[in-house]
């Protein structure tokens, strides 16, 4: 039996890739639990599994006594002699068990724990294996497509995963047997097994594709600074070169466009704008709105990153793009809110502002006077002068209205 046991261990190690030491630890713990339940003993169970010497034994150690008070750890001499003819009272007796005679409950418990240990080992091994693939691009083979949902089952390294419909490109028409590139977003640690969250719409898929096709990006000569993407439609990627002799855009395009063509083919015709990155925000914004021509970029003051961009009248629709796509991608690429206006609108606004300022300068002095803007003392003087004028007017009016005094007469009253 021992030979069969160790052969089974070797077979599991080969087929499952699980280390024998890990399996031996799980099996040892399982047997200890099973013996404790079946024989009603404490922590006096010993399991020895030695694959080098082919030794596999299970034993229980109890103290030989005249009167048993604790059955879990004590045994009578008569019973001990059946296990060890040299047993004596006051000495421990090692009771070797025949593994073939384990009780049904013990066998079932050991079987369950061993299976659980194998599943945990597979899950741990798979988790470690999958963690290495996170944020990387891998090749997957399409196994089947669900007609109702559109979800695809793909195989990666002999494991099956789901590529959900919303993680596929709108232009993807997958068929069984197709080999596609997918981006590993994360490892999903489920209760029973591990799985991968994979995507073809993630923006970093484009970055990894450029690393595969452009050696200068892979070795760090060219750095990808930022990416904005509307999957299946258009992507903007900002690159800069750490070597002045290497043109970042030319390197990404490749000889006769071979490098960029390979990426576009993998993405089923998705348009890709390669933008030259600049440390100067205004210059970077100007490049980000390519292919539109930009006349002026004004960074607006304030904590919010915002700017105002002026373009020629015939470039306004190109700068904004279909349904605002070009402007939105440029905003995501640069991190700025971009207000785009035409050259004629900018001139009209400037002229209106100039006319308003000229009107203020040409206004009569009386119209510009406003007591609200005067200092408090001047306001008080003005009020005093008005009060004095009112008082004088009232006094004059009273004098005019007062009756004249009667003249004295020398005539006597008759």
UniProtKB/TrEMBL annotation:
Start and end residues of each S1 motif domain: 133-199
Keyword Transcription regulation: yes
Domain K Homology: 231-294, 303-362
InterPro entries: KH_dom, KH_dom-like_a/b, KH_NusA_2nd, KH_sf_prok-type, NA-bd_OB-fold, NusA_N_sf, S1_domain, TF_NusA
Organism domain of life: Bacteria
GO biological process: DNA-templated transcription termination; transcription antitermination
Gene3D superfamilies tied to this protein: 3.30.300.20, Nucleic acid-binding proteins, NusA, N-terminal domain
Region span, Disordered: 353-414
Any one GO molecular-function label of the UniProt entry: RNA binding
A Pfam short name: KH_NusA_2nd
Compartments where located: Cytoplasm
UniProt similarity note: Belongs to the NusA family.
Cited PANTHER family: TRANSCRIPTION TERMINATION FACTOR NUSA, TRANSCRIPTION TERMINATION_ANTITERMINATION PROTEIN NUSA
Main function: Participates in both transcription termination and antitermination.
Protein name, per record: Transcription termination/antitermination protein NusA
Species assigned in the record: Candidatus Faecivivens stercoravium
Upper classification of the organism: Bacteria, Bacillati, Bacillota, Clostridia, Eubacteriales
Name of the encoding gene: nusA
């Amino acid at each position: 039996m021992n030979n069969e046991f160790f052969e089974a261990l070797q077979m599991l190690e080969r087929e499952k890739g699980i280390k024998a030491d890990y399996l031996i630890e799980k099996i040892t713990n399982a047997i200890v639990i099973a013996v404790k339940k079946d024989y009603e003993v404490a922590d006096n169970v010993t399991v020895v599994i030695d694959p080098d010497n082919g030794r596999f034994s299970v034993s229980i150690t109890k103290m030989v006594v005249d009167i048993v008070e604790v059955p879990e750890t004590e045994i009578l001499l008569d019973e001990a002699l059946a296990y060890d003819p040299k047993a004596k009272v006051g000495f421990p007796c090692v009771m070797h068990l025949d593994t073939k005679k384990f009780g049904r409950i013990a066998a079932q418990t050991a079987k369950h724990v061993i299976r659980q240990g194998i599943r945990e080992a597979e899950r741990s091994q798979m988790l470690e294996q999958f963690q290495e693939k996170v944020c990387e691009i891998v090749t997957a083979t399409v196994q089947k497509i669900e007609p109702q949902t559109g979800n695809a089952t793909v195989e990666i390294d002999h494991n099956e995963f789901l590529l959900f419909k919303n993680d596929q490109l709108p232009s993807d028409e997958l068929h069984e047997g197709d080999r596609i590139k997918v981006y590993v977003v994360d490892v999903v640690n489920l209760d029973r097994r591990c799985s991968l969250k994979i995507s073809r719409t993630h923006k970093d898929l484009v970055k990894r594709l450029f690393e595969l096709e452009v050696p200068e990006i892979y070795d760090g000569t060219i750095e990808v600074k930022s990416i904005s993407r509307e999957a299946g439609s258009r992507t903007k990627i900002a690159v800069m070169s750490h070597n002045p002799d290497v043109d970042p855009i030319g390197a990404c395009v490749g000889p006769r466009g071979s490098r960029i063509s390979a990426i576009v083919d993998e993405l089923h015709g998705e348009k890709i704008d390669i933008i030259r990155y600049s440390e100067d925000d205004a210059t970077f914004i100007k490049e980000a709105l390519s292919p539109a021509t930009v006349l002026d970029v004004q960074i607006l003051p304030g904590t919010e990153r915002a700017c105002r961009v002026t373009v020629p009248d015939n470039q306004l629709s190109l700068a904004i793009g279909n349904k605002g796509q070009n402007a939105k991608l440029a905003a995501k690429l640069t991190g700025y809110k971009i207000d785009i206006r035409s050259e004629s609108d900018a001139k009209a606004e400037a002229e209106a502002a100039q006319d308003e300022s000229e009107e203020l300068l040409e206004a009569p002095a009386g119209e510009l006077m406003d007591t609200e803007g005067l200092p408090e003392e001047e306001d008080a003087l003005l009020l005093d002068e008005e009060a004095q004028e009112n008082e004088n007017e009232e006094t004059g009016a009273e004098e005019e209205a007062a009756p004249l005094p009667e003249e004295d007469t020398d005539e006597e009253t008759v």
